[in-house]
């Protein structure tokens, strides 16, 4: 995948996360944020490794998100809490998978369209 569109995608993901948190309260921004967190990891992986296969990017991004969530079962240094979180929440695991799955679907389709165009 070309790097410029991927870098712009990273910016859009961050903007969506900030916008959702600014506009809504309650569980919507929390769980959307979880999916977007994984989407950002996915996009950063594609930015770093443009030829990564969609299923690999999905597995790595979901796996990293899950690992970070499970780290919250222990003590996380205060300085890292804004990025890594501080409280383990089992439903977050589902939303990380949703984010990875949606990214996989979009990435898979984009690659298929690119292959058709030759």
Automatic annotation (TrEMBL):
UniProt entry keywords in alphabetical sequence: Membrane, Transmembrane, Transmembrane helix
Protein known as: DUF2809 domain-containing protein
Domain of life: Bacteria
InterPro entries the record matches: DUF2809
Residue intervals passing through the bilayer: 31-48
Annotated Pfam families: DUF2809
């Amino acid at each position: 995948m070309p790097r410029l569109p991927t870098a712009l995608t990273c910016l859009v993901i961050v903007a969506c996360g900030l916008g959702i948190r600014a506009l809504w309260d309650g569980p919507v921004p929390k769980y959307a944020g979880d999916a977007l967190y994984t989407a950002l990891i996915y996009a950063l992986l594609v930015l770093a490794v443009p030829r990564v296969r969609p299923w690999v990017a999905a597995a790595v991004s979901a796996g990293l998100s899950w690992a970070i969530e499970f780290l919250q079962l222990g003590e996380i240094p205060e300085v890292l809490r804004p990025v890594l979180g501080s409280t383990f929440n089992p439903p977050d695991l589902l939303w990380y998978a949703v984010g990875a799955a949606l990214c996989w679907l979009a990435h898979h389709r984009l690659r298929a369209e690119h292959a058709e165009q030759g």
